[in-house]
Amino acid sequence: MALLNFKSRANRQVSSPGLGDLLGGWSIEVMPRTAAKVDDFRALLPAGTRVYIAHIAGTPIEDMIATARRLHEEGFPVMPHFPARSIPDAATLEDWIKRYRNEAGVQEALLLGGGQPEPAGSLDSSIQMMETGLFDRYGFNRLHIAGHPEGNRDIDRDGSTRGVDQALAWKQDFASRTDARMAIVTQFAFDARSVTDWAERIQRAGVTLPIHVGIAGPAKLQTLLKYALACGVGPSLKVLQKRAMDVTRLLVPYEPTEVVAGLADYKASNPDSLIEQLHIFPLGGIKEAGDWADRQENTSPGRLSRKEL
Q1: Model pLDDT, residue 22
Q2: pLDDT by residue (tens digit) across 249-288?
Q3: Neighbouring residues of 207: CB distance < 8 A, sequence distance ≥ 6
Q4: What's the pLDDT at 108?
Q5: DSSP secondary-structure letter at 3?
Q6: Is 229 exposed, middle or buried (0-12, 13-18, 19+ CB in 10 A)?
Q7: How confident is the model at residue 230, as a pLDDT?
Q8: How far apart are CA 174 and CA 75, in angstroms?
Q9: Do residues 22 and 260 make contact, with C-beta atoms less than 8 angstroms apart?
Q10: How confident is the model at residue 300 (pLDDT cuts 50, 70, 90)?
Q11: For residues 52 and 31, what is the distance between their CA atoms, to the nearest angstrom?
């Protein structure tokens, strides 16, 4: 039997203070069906990596809990999604929370409205789930919420940011009056400027929650375009479209190196920014995403690639 190559974040070298800040503690997202194809996550991810479990519509809660239990037993902090519109009522929400806590040792959650156009029942938003007090009752000590640097047409159909801004202000107040550890996790973006401008804007509005910036891991361009369109990625989609126009690069896998370099430069120049770390969507594979992050963490000083898209 081959020995597993267990990873560690210890003694890693990075190319700049800004990059080191972002890569220190990056997280990753998986689905039960993709997790089932991985023999042992300890061979792919550094110890201590927070693993989010995406709850796609139609996924049985039993599959979600089994995946959470397996990751917890392998030593990873586990953060399952709780999509409000997929949860019929508060009683079901309580059942899920209780089962995650008792059967899988989970103490963290990402709270989302969810992508379903119509709610399954009485729950319609992450705010409603937070108001129940159930997460505190069952010992959940970390709650993350969604951030939308490029807006969210499902919430603000007029193209404004009025609805998402009001919701974020409510959640900031919730964080201020409770002991929950909270952070904002964004949808993946391909343009650093759209993220940094948004981070500055919400900070001026009084938000103090740290931001974990979503990025797409290495993947084929066709795969990224499909997910970007499905997830409603906005202005930064132009970055991919520009790349698609270059025939010589169509077959070259995308890597998020440029957007990360832009974020790292910004972080180095603005150390008080809310931007804290990266969250990787492994659209091209978990191993590929982990290997890419590993290469960036071990890049020699001054050698971070900044290939032009």
Answers
A1: 81
A2: 555 678 888 899 999 999 999 999 999 999 999 988 999 9
A3: 168, 169, 172, 184, 274
A4: 98
A5: P
A6: exposed
A7: 58
A8: 30
A9: yes
A10: very low
A11: 8
Asked if 260 and 18 count as a contact pair (C-beta separation under 8 A), the reply is no
- DSSP character string of 230-263: HHT--TTHHHHHHHHT-GGGTTSPB-THHHHHHH
Query: So what's the pLDDT on residue 124?
Result: 93
Burial (0-12, 13-18, 19+ Cβ within 10 Å), 104 = buried
Q: Which two tokens stand for residue 273?
A: 């920014």
Q: Are 190 and 239 in contact (CB under 8 A)?
A: yes
Angle formed at CA 162 by CA 263 and CA 213, multiple of 5 degrees = 20
- pLDDT tens digit string along 56-114? 988 999 999 999 999 999 999 999 999 999 999 999 999 999 999 999 999 999 999 98
Q: Taking a C-beta distance cutoff of 8 angstroms, is the pair 283, 227 a contact?
A: yes
Query: What is the C-alpha to C-alpha distance for residues 195 and 179, in angstroms, rounded to an integer?
Result: 27
Range list of β-strands (E), the chain: 27-30, 51-53, 78-83, 108-112, 142-147, 181-186, 211-216, 275-281
How many Å apart are CA 76 and CA 242, to the nearest integer? 38
pLDDT tens sequence across 213-224: 999 999 887 777
Angle at 215 between CA 22 and CA 125, to 5 degrees: 105
Residue in the structure block whose two tokens are 């202000």: 169
Least confident residue range of 66-80, 129-143, 160-174: 160-174
**Burial of 142 from C-beta contacts in 10 A (0-12 / 13-18 / 19+):** middle
Please state, in angstroms and rounded to a whole number, the distance separating the CA atoms of residues 183 and 244. 34
User: pTM of the full predicted structure?
Assistant: 0.86
